[in-house]
Write a structure and sequence with these properties.
This protein is of the alpha+beta class. The protein has 2 domains: 134 residues, no CATH class; 96 residues, no CATH class. Helices cover 25% and strands 26% of the residues. The protein contains 8 helices and 13 strands. Strands 1, 2, 5, 10, 11, 12 and 13 form a 7-stranded antiparallel sheet that branches. Strands 3-4 form a two-stranded antiparallel ribbon. Strands 6-7 form a two-stranded antiparallel ribbon. Helix 7 crosses helix 8. The mean pLDDT is 92. Belongs to the CFAP300 family. This is Cilia- and flagella-associated protein 300. Cilium- and flagellum-specific protein that plays a role in axonemal structure organization and motility. May play a role in outer and inner dynein arm assembly. Its main location: cytoplasm.
């Protein structure tokens, strides 16, 4: 019987993400009320890692005292190091297999009712779902299970990491100015996704994604979720990205709300 590795983690400096830190990307994030509402952190480990270690790694990561001292979480409108060591860690694997933006071609086809031939997103009568204002067909596709557009993407496709990023951007924050054109959302989705995942070429020349993505809910000793806080809200999301090539762990935490200030 194999003994699971005893992982030790070392905090790394913030990476300079070319796509995320691009001026145009930052302007859109600000417009959509998302800028400052997500935080990305990096850690390394030296121990052996195989795919089947992913659940064990995620659990010990959030129960690690070094991680507790470094992990940023949201407190009111600030990102702070609360020093919380997880008591329970709920882990869900997230598929991450999309290699190009053709995944969103269904949205760009006017026959599917999301956009007009001009690329402008089709409007619809206002309604509210999960406290989000649904006033166009794109947000209807995301949240309105009763509309025909909702079925454009299967349950498995909706679980893809790139779809999670796209939905986060479209739904936005509390102070969100929505786009009329679909392309703006796709542009920023691509920038963030490309920055966060690793694509590698196999011996046969085929491309694949080596990044392992896990959605996580970490809770303290009172059973209170803190990564993310209030996970029942669709826009509160915590992901753990494991790079088995570089032996790095990246945390991506988004908390819905107004602009979050730095520590």
């Amino acid at each position: 019987m194999e003994i699971e590795p005893r992982y030790t983690f070392v905090p790394l400096v913030q990476k300079n993400y070319i796509g995320i830190n691009d001026k145009r990307t930052q302007e859109f994030l600000s417009k959509w009320g998302i800028k400052g509402n997500f935080v990305i952190q990096h850690f390394s480990f030296n121990e052996t890692f195989q795919q089947y270690h992913k659940y064990h790694l995620a659990e010990v990561f959030f129960k690690d005292s070094i991680i507790a001292k470094e992990l940023l979480t949201k407190q009111r409108n600030h990102w702070v190091k609360q020093g919380i060591t997880a008591t329970t860690v709920e882990i869900k694997p997230i598929p991450c297999s999309v290699l190009n933006m053709s995944f969103f071609n269904k949205l760009k086809n006017p026959k599917n009712g999301i956009v007009h031939g001009s690329g402008i997103i089709g409007k619809r009568y206002d309604m509210e779902i999960e406290n989000f204002l649904i006033s166009d067909n794109l947000r209807g596709m995301l949240l309105d299970e009763e509309c025909s557009e909702y079925n454009l993407y299967s349950k498995d496709e909706r679980e893809e990491f790139i779809f999670n990023i796209f939905q986060m951007l479209v739904l936005g924050g509390m102070l969100c100015q929505y786009e009329d054109l679909l392309d703006s959302y796709l542009e920023v989705t691509k920038a963030i996704y490309k920055d966060l995942i690793r694509v590698q070429k196999g011996e046969d020349g085929d491309l694949s994604i080596s990044t392992i993505v896990l959605q996580v809910v970490a809770k303290d000793n009172r059973g209170q979720a803190y990564f993310p806080y209030d996970p029942s809200h669709k826009q509160n999301m915590g992901f753990l990205l494991v790079d088995s090539v570089t032996h790095e762990v990246t945390t991506f935490l988004h908390q819905f709300g107004v602009y979050c200030l730095s520590q």
